[in-house]
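Let's practice the habit of predicting before peeking. Look at the sequence and jot down your guess about where helices and strands might fall. Then scroll down.
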Amino acid sequence: MVHHGALFVVMSLGLVVAAGGEAPEMTSLDPWFRLFGRLHSVLVHFPIGLVLAAAGVEAWRWSRRERGIAEFTSVAMLLAALSAIGAVATGWINAWQEGQDASRTLSLHSYLGTVMAAVLLAVAWKTRRRDEPPATAQARLMPARVLTLASAFGVGLAGHFGGELVHGDGYVEKALFAALGMDRSADGAARSAEVVDSDGQASGSTASVVRTVAAGTVDFRTQVLPIFESRCFECHGNGKRKGGLAMDSAASMTKVDDDGVAVKAGEPDGSLIVQRIMLPASDPDSMPPEGERLSAAERDLIRTWIKEGGVMEAVAAGVAAAPGAVKGAMTSLDADLSLRATEVAQALRGRGVIAQPLAQDDPRLDINASLATPPFTDADLAMLQPAAGAIVNLNLARSQVTDAGVAGLKGFVVLESLRLDSTGVGDAALACVATMPRLKVLNVHSTKVSDAGLTPLKQATALERVFAWNSQVTPNGASALASSRPTLRINVGQE
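Done guessing? Here is the structure:
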């Protein structure tokens, strides 16, 4: 019996180690490797659930001073060890097939998961039930239970890192700190942005400019970035790096790996983004993988942008700046408003909102409430009022604000970008636009806004761009507004 168990452990460990090795180049088998790798998301839940259940049983028996390892624990740990081998093997294959870039989170998930698979094999051996003298069984009981509880912690931690790969870095921590009302940025926990200058040198700052080249006909911030935010950031932005690509990171977008580069300046056909959005929907690598395909106009816009150099302006590490974001400081805020802006930003961060100065020398605020948990509401809008005169960019996308709450925004005299996309607002919400003399960009795509809601926009003399696709705005309504405002461009999905 012992030699069979030893052989089982040795063979299993060999499979775990082999899973992390280099896979052979077999192009004809690639579809099968892809399928096998994607089974990771199915298999990985078995060892986690089994180990946690076994740990719970043993913790309960320990508290009741019951003798011996439970039969359930013995069976569960064996099944957990076997399923962990499959999870690790498919995980490594999935990372290889999907082109995952090396990242700290991926490395922690991969290697900790591999180590835990080996640990589970040892624990499964330790917790096996067998005939032995009572004294021997009792001596084995304590270390077996400790190992079971420790393995539950290790498997849970590996699963946590896996969750961050899917949901973004800090997925749990952000909600935890927000629930506790703690400000992560005050102690430097907030991520700093990476700046890539024209010489390719990185430095810490709040925003990045990838290249300095002559402006093309396509503007990244007002035309391309909204497409990325609405169709790509769910998997490739705001801390998420599916397939190793973060589309709100300039470094990630221009990094060359084995598959190529997402954005190859001047060469749209050589850019992975273009290649993926041009694939037929039936291809497993086509992007976006769900929902409607990008329109021909959107694909052409991205191609033209890359052909003109693929310039990415004001892209912060982890959070892309709102369309219309401006660079450079304005006249300093008065002491009272500056203090209120600082206090409002701190309160918003405690609410789970991203609130930061525009730049190191510009105390005006860039506020992104689109990721707040629970979603931002009308009651939360009251938090903004003390700093209304200092807010330049306001992102309320995917929030639960209503017409009444948005229409009541007053005093936002320096606001240049307002995002209301993917909310339930309608025409009445846009009454606030007339009170915003510097508003340049308005995003109301995927809302209930109709042609009637465009009327207040005639008074917004600074307005340059309106994004209204998937709303109730019609091409005729957009044309009517554009005819009275020749410099205003309205995107209803036809350009």
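How did you do? The chain has three domains: 2-167, 188-307, 335-491.
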